[in-house]
Structures are given as C-alpha cells and as structure tokens.
C-alpha cells in the first residue's frame, strides 16, 4: 500500500554527492533553509549525517530526501539511508541543471546544487523515481554491478574480434570463404598453432603473428570471464525473479537488465511501466493539430532489453510471429509492428515481475 505523506508538513533534504564529500541542505515546504551539513563519504561521515538528520526538525515530521547520483558516489549513502527512510528519490542532474538555468544567478557550488535538489523535490516529486530497500539490497546491487561488468566484457570481446578480423584478413585474405566461423574453438586453435612458433619481434613479418597470438589469448580469457559472470548473474536472478527466465526470449543478461532497470515493480502501474520503458507514444498537440510520435525517452536500458526480447521471439516464437504478421496485415509498418510487439512483451514482463508464477504461454 502506498504510503500517504503530508507534503506541507514535511522536511525536504537535498544531497549533492561527490567522491570524497557530500553536502546536504534541509528546508521546509516553502524552501526556507533549516540547516546544512558537509560530511565525508565514509562510514563515520555518513553516520554523522544520519545523526544530524534525525535531530533536525520535529521527530514526527516526514523527511523527503533527494540524492543526485545515488548509483555512483552516493551508493553507500543511499544504502544506509534506505534502512530507516522510505521517502528517498533519485534526482537526475539534468533537472538541477534546468533549475540553475531557469534562475538569474547561475551560481555553481555543492550547497547551491543541494538547494536546487530541494526545488526539484518540492515541485516535481510525483515525477521522480523513488529508491526503496529492494533497490539497495546487496543482491540487487551486486546484480546491477555484474550487468555493467558484463556489458564492458562484451565491448572488449567485440573490439578484439574486430581487430582479429583485420589481422586475419591481412595475413590470409580468403580465410572466411572456406573456414566458417572465424572464432570457433577449432579455428582459433589453428591460428594459435600457426602463430605459436618462436616470434622474433624485430622481424616485421612476425609482428602480426605475435599480435594474433596475444589477442586470441585475451579473447579466450574474456570469454571465460563472461561465462563465469553469466553463472553468477543466474544465481542472483534466481533469488530475485526466477520466473522471468521462463519467458521465451529472455536470457540471463536480458533478465538482469530488466530487473536492475525496474528494481521495485510495486512503484509502477501498468501504464506507467509502459511509459517508463519508453514504449508508449508521446502526444504532440498544438491548437487543432494533434499527433503521436515514437517515445525516445524512458529508461533506455529497459527499452533495449524489451526490444531484444521482441526480436528474439520473432525468430523462434510462433505466437510472436503471428502477432507481428497480424499487425502488418492491419497496415502497420514493420517498425510500428515491432513497437506493438514490444508493448505486448512489456505487459507480460510486468505481470511476471508482479507475480512469482512461471510464464504459461
């Protein structure tokens, strides 16, 4: 059940976070400052802030807290605060920049930014994402870090493959025409055997062989790491939402992206979830002209994950193919039909996140 708070009789706390030190400012509903504190980004400093926060104002007043950068330098702070405070909100730096540009002074300091966060809290609270205990649980935080780490591994693997493609082509221009996959275990073993001879780096002819040898070793090491990360992610997903993996098209990495992008599904209705995913069209109205355009906002990680699921289902899921062809038959373009399929996928994912039941297609 959604907690009901009296916003007029609440205290608003804006926190501007940095690597070594945070700055907090507290104010009432009318943005009249009640106090400020700068504290170290250490366990001792954060405990000092918690003590200061609990002492300021009357004990029965709700404290509404805004943190700019809760997923970065403010991660440890929000983990500590979420244990005792329920009204914690993530503030996008774009919002504070807009408030700064809206004013006439343009000052920039930690205290000024904290006050701008308070302005966002008092005026745009309904539009802000709330941070919950689930968001900052160790399981969720670890899964989020593994998703980011996996993305970095894939970037490095792709870069190495592109570099190896170039080197393979320079040494043997016809290598792809008769060997199938360029990075299968067998093909890489052939290149290792060819390049495994003693390399004389002073000989220009051997430099490419040396580079291929080292890059293949790096590629295999990264693939082993990626496989291990996938295994660890699956264990964490099974602790949070194992039923998500029963939905066709949702793999380990995609499930991890969805869970870490959504975090607490309880803060969404179905319509707000569709908007948050950037799938619902955006209305553009001026006078008598009224149009709907593709939404390019929303959470792009969640949008990308749902798009991946939709494309995967188009390749091997009969119901998804039938739904897609139905939309094409109705006169929709392929892009529009894919967006319709994404909405259908998002609705099912929403239901799975809400329940503990497996997908029954």
Explained architecture:
With 361 residues, the chain is an alpha/beta fold. The protein folds into 3 domains: 7-136, Nucleotidyltransferase, domain 5 (2-Layer Sandwich); 139-240, no CATH class; 245-354, no CATH class. 54% of the residues lie in helices and 12% in strands. The protein has 12 helices and 8 strands. The strands form 2 sheets. A 6-stranded mixed sheet has the order 3-2-1-4-5-6. A two-stranded antiparallel ribbon has the order 7-8. α11 (318-329) crosses α12 (334-354). The longest helix is centred in the middle third of the chain and has 37 residues, at 204-240. 27% of the residues are buried.
The DSSP helix count reads 12
Strand content: 5-15%
Q: Shape from CA axes?
A: globular
What does the average pLDDT come to? 86
Domain Transposase IS110-like N-terminal: 13-171
Domain Transposase IS116/IS110/IS902 C-terminal: 243-325
GO molecular function, one term: DNA binding
Secondary structure layout plus pairing:
Layout: E1 10-16, E2 21-27, E3 33-40, H1 43-55, E4 62-68, H2 75-81, E5 88-90, H3 93-102, H4 110-124, E6 130-131, H5 138-171, H6 185-195, H7 204-240, H8 252-262, H9 270-276, E7 282-286, E8 289-293, H10 300-316, H11 318-329, H12 334-354
Helix pairs in contact: 3-4, 5-7, 5-8, 6-7, 7-8, 8-10, 10-11, 10-12, 11-12
Question: What's this entry about, in short?
Answer:
With about 350 residues, the protein is α/β, with parallel strands linked by helices. The protein contains twelve helices and eight strands. A six-stranded mixed beta sheet has the order 3-2-1-4-5-6. Strands 7-8 form a two-stranded antiparallel sheet.
């Amino acid at each position: 059940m959604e907690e009901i708070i009296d916003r007029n009789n609440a205290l608003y706390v804006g926190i501007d976070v940095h690597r070594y030190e945070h700055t907090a400012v507290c104010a009432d509903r009318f943005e009249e400052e009640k106090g400020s504190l700068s504290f170290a980004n250490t366990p001792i400093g954060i405990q000092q802030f918690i003590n200061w926060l609990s002492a300021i104002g009357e004990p029965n007043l709700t404290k509404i807290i805004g943190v700019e950068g809760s997923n970065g330098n403010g991660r440890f702070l929000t983990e500590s605060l979420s244990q005792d405070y329920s009204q914690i909100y993530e503030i996008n730096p774009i919002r504070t920049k807009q408030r700064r540009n809206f004013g006439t002074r343009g000052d920039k300091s930690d205290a000024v930014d904290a006050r701008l966060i308070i302005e966002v809290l008092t005026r745009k609270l309904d539009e802000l994402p709330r941070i919950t205990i689930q968001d900052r649980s160790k399981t969720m935080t670890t899964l989020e870090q593994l998703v980011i780490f996996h993305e970095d591994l894939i970037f490095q693997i792709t870069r190495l493959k592109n570099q190896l493609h170039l080197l393979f082509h320079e040494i043997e221009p016809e290598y792809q025409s008769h060997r199938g996959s360029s990075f299968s275990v067998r093909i890489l073993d052939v290149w290792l055997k060819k390049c495994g001879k003693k390399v004389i780096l002073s000989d220009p002819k051997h430099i490419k062989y040396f580079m291929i040898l080292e890059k293949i070793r790096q590629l295999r090491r990264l693939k082993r790491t990626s496989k291990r990360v996938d295994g660890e992610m699956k264990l964490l997903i099974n602790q949070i939402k194992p039923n998500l993996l029963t939905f066709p098209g949702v793999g380990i990495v995609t499930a991890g992206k969805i869970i870490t992008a959504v975090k607490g599904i309880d803060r969404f209705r179905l319509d707000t979830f569709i908007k948050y995913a950037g799938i619902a069209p955006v209305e553009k109205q001026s006078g008598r002209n009224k149009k709907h355009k593709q939404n390019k906002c929303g959470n792009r990680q969640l949008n990308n994950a749902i798009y991946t699921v939709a494309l995967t289902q188009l390749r091997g899921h009969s119901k998804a193919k039938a739904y897609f062809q139905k939309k094409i038959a109705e006169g929709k373009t392929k892009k529009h039909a894919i967006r319709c399929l994404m909405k259908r996928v998002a609705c099912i994912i929403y239901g799975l996140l809400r329940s503990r039941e497996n997908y029954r297609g």
